[in-house]
Fold:
Amino acid sequence: QVQPVESGGGLVQAGGSLRLSCAASGSIFSSNTMKWYRQAPGKGREFVALITSGGTTNYADSVKDRFTISRDSSKTTVYLQMNSLKPEDTAVYYCSCLGFWGKGTLVTVST
Structure:
């Protein structure tokens, strides 16, 4: 299984939290940067966060201080902890590594 698989999406009220997971088996994923993107209805796909194999992270300004990206010790599962969610965070969230993309998981934030 080369394709990353996302999970953890759902419906949450504004101000709530969700944790997304991305499972990507294979040594190529454990030694490379993994990224989260999102695509809101009617909009293009945008970068959310990334984590390198060494643990360096980077975030889009829109989610900085609210979202946290991490990966487990095997480095084949990446998490996106999303706190203080806003309606504008509503989107399909995708995991990506080395050009491989998951099918996405839908996050809906209600007012």
